[in-house]
Amino acid sequence: MLKHVENTDYRPGIELKNLSAGYRNNTIVHDISLAIPYGKMTVLVGANGSGKSTLLSTMARMLKPLAGSVLLDGKAIHQQATKAVSRQLGILPQSPLVPEGLTVFDLVSRGRFPWQGFLQQWSEEDEQAVEQALDLTGTRDFAHLPVDSLSGGQRQRCWIAMALAQQTPFILLDEPTTFLDLRYQVEILELLHNLTRHHGRTVVVVLHDLNFAINYGDMLVFLKQGQLQGIVHEGENCPAELIQSVFEVDVHMSTNPLNGKPFFMPFPARSGKTS
Amino acid sequence: MSSLAKRSVRHHRRFVLALPLSLLLLFSLAVFHIGVGARPIGPYTVIQALFHFDAKNFDHRIIVSLRLLRLTAAVLVGAALGVAGVLLQALIRNPLGEPHILGLNAGAAFAVVVCTALGITSASQSLIAAAGAAALFSLVMLLSSAGRGGVTPLKVMLCGVALSAMISSLTAAILILDEQTLLAMRTWLVGDLSGLRWESIHHAIYPLLAGLLLAISIAPGMNILALGDNMARGLGVNLLRIRLVAMLAIALLCGVAVSIAGPLGFIGLLVPNIIRRLVTEDIRLMLPLSALLGAVLLLMADIIARVLLAPQELATGIMTALVGAPVFVFIASRFLK
Which residues of B touch A134 (CB under 8 A)? Predict the structure, then answer.
């Protein structure tokens, strides 16, 4: 408890209030309330179909809440002008489209859209934001190449660069490491971690890999069948029972020697318990 | 920093090259286009007539009273169709999008034929045509979004073709019942630039300008829309509003084109594909180029239509379809794998 009080920059930026979300006749996420810590990395964890993407999409105002609300700095996000929100909140959806032949630089430049008026198209600020985004993501070297000619990992970094060029304090990403090699997964997660530590961004991300989530997440939000199953705050231990109930699989817990955080190995439902 | 900016403007450099090139092409084709006809006129005389008009010269009088009209119509219609094609393909994210195939032309033609049959010949014929185009295209989008999986490229095309066929047969039914209208509209219905009057161009100017201005106003947003709906929402694009404005602009442009020249196909298909392949996919740059290239292609088609079987003339729409249909099949085979 004491730890939380000492941490002065622990103020809520995004807050969910009794949020239910999903589609017209299909409520997927039920009555969730939580506050996303400012300047930290929050990871949504859960099995397939647990509602983590639905929750993220609703926070990103891609879906309207069925009940309850998402507050951004105290105001309901779905009632604010979409362009004003887009200066606060950047999103990276699961499968964005790339027009054929679009160069990395031009793609990242499009992240400046929320800041551009019709007549004032390109400013020095835009240029700087794009340059910085390219540098942070290491995409400068291939900035002149078409996005569709790049590898999956490079392409993902371009999308993140675009979200960075948007210069929003909050960034939401839906499974940014899916389909990537291990090395690129680590790269992307390091980058996101870096953004929270050195650039003051608040990151909310859906991740599939449990151990990555534990390693990189400051706060872990566990979902099961659309219900909030548990929240592990920064510095708290992640109990094995929680993992077992969320993923419905037996796990062996050990300690990650690098950072002292727990590390979970799954067992097949029964046969693994022979020791 | 500057080197990066320079590298990024590769597309813009191509644009800077393409713009004067297409202007030059347009001008030379225009001179040639004026010269073509029952009484061929050389380029020198054409230029003389345009810049030093002599009322006593018979050729000069032909040029100014007849040929200039056809040229103006071809340029305006070509520009309208080119821009409409760019917007339409960006709107449905499909390189096969085309006013003719998606039913806009058929809808516009139907509206015009109905009004003519009812004896309504108002100054706002292009607005009537635009309303017809908008109505049928809305129906196409509505039908293709029904059912599982939402709007897919193939569904949109099939709905467009089916509804076009349906509404065209209604048009045909009216024309068969009403012989007078048929006589007046027979060649117009395949798309033709003969038998024009200056009035129809005067009446089309404001809808055309409105359509072009709307197109320019949504160009930056259309660039964002190309990244997917969710991405566009995240970047603050109001999806409903931009789609409605795009549809309005497309309907106005198609309405203008159909009210002047009848339903001309495939210009709106070729123009965006050529520009994307050769120059850029940036909608802001595509718009001015598409207007020029649309005019260029239509001038070419109109010249060939009148030269090929001279002294007979083919309808311009037959020419655009002869070239456009194979290209459509080619693009379809690549896109709809």
Answer: 4
